[in-house]
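User: What would this chain look like folded?
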Amino acid sequence: MREIIDFIEANVNGRTLFTKELVYELENGGLQGVYSDQISSVK
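Assistant: Here's the prediction, encoded as C-alpha cells.
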C-alpha cells in the first residue's frame, strides 16, 4: 500500500490528468459524440 501512496504523491498530486478523446455512437450509429475529461489533484 505504501508503494501506491508514494507513487501518487510523486506522480499525481498537484497535476492535471487528461483522458484521450473517445468517440462513441448511439442509436445504431445515428448519433455520435466525443468525450474527454480532465481531473485536477491538489497537494
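The first strand starts at residue 16 and ends at 18. If you want, I can go into more detail on any region.
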